Amino acid sequence: MRPFTLNYTLPKGLPTVVMPYRFDTSRQLNVLPNGRPAVSDRDLLLAVGTTTSTAGSQTHFDD
Length: 63
Known about the structure:
single chain; 2 strands; about 60 residues; two-stranded antiparallel sheet; alpha+beta; Rbsml_synth_pep_Strp
């Protein structure tokens, strides 16, 4: 039997998140589905705040 209070303290599930950009390894930057750099989309930057990835920290010691 599940305690009644656990129905309200545990989350039902995580929301599905869709990333509007992907990391292009050949260009070493995040790109939109149409191939433009993600940093060129002002509305995207306002919505997500940043388009950083972990690739820089894996390739450069000073990131």
